[in-house]
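pasting for the record
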Amino acid sequence: MMTQSSQDAISKEGGMDYMRYVHLVMARKGLFVTVALCTMLAAIVISYVMPKKYEAESIVFIEQNVISDLVKGIAVTPSMEMKIKAIKVTMKSRSMLLNVIKDLDLDLNVQNDQELDGLIAGLQNRIDIVLDERRGVFKISFADTDPVLARDVVNTLTRLYIEENTSTKRKESFEATKFLAEQIDIFKERIDQAEADIDHFKSEAGMMLSSNEGILKREIDEAEDALEEVRIRMNALETSRSVLLNNTPLRKQLDEQRMHLKILLTRYTRNHPAVKHLQSAIAETERQLNSKNRQELSAVYRSSEYQGIKVELASLKNIKENLEAEVSEKKDALKNIPALRTRLLELERKKQNEVIIYEKLVSRYGQSEVSKEMELQDKSMSFRVLDPAVVPSTHSSPNRPLIILLGIVGGIGLGLGIIVLMDLINPSIKSLDDLREFGVPVLAVVPKMHDEALLAKQKVRARRVYAVGLVGIIFCLSFLVMEVFRLGVVDMVISKVSSIVVG
């Protein structure tokens, strides 16, 4: 059996609904109020115990000068996108933060490198840089327990960055101009050298390069035809000279005897008396020819006809040698002309490439001069501080309204959670379904008996709980309202109490 009130606290299906939670809270309202108020008070105490941090911020505008548009295409200036991307990295760099530390004398109490590294890491973690590329601005913020230090860090970091950015731009412009001037001198020397190579090559192969291949082929054909005519004429003269040398009486007699011998041999054998007699005559003629040959040849050599043939042969020989040399030379030239022209084209192409780069360098040098002047006079792009950092009057951390609000909501949730958890781990029978699971038949439900004196005490205690809970929630809400409207009453009280205690 179970009481009527317990059965009313649950649904007939045995499932939990919102009324069950209401009944559970009402049954343990003292515990609920205690847990909730303690959580709320803890949140309030934590929000006031946590050290206050003050955040200072500065807004810097990246100003695009109108001159940048006027010299577009003439001068080279860094784009805004490149500048914005480099801001965060540069501002949080070790070198930049070291300069900030030195300017503000933050390293007076630093004893070693480890402490310095820790100080730099702390600054890097607390410095926040937010970029707004669309508006072309960036915000620098820094939080610290000392509001004056927060302001000084932001303003010093902004100032140092703008100064370093300006000096870096000028240095880069000077170095770029110097580099371009050096490259211009180098490429001017290379162009002069290329021109000298072309002139030297033309002086060596000028005749061949100026030759026309068609004309050269025709000249070779004409020279070969003339050479062939010379050879024919030389052969004819050689034949005539041979005829003169061989046209003596004894030689003619010898030729006739040899011819007659051939005829006899067709009729008789070599042993025939006529053949032998003719052979003896041939031998005698040869003997006489050998003895008189020198005299006859000398007479032939002295003859005007032989001397004319000799002079003409010598002339034709010189003409032949000249024609052969001419043909060989022109054939070599015809064969070498493509290679020579290719070599000349390579030299001219090399020179043209050097000239193209040289002209680009000269053009870039002019742009670099304009860019350098723009950077020196800050005419390209400059940083303008729209809102310099000031000493913050209110703290940015901790967020007391949020902490108190979370404490109120968390206290209510924690109180409800504890009550529900206690109910879940309670092993007592809570519904008819629990009994049915054990197989116990339920015959009837006995209603709860009420004790009037006990009920009166419970009502008085409930009123006290309600009153404490109401006062507690009003107390917590009053802190929330004061922090939302930044009245500063609590801080004033805490400050006075602290001064009294310290004094």
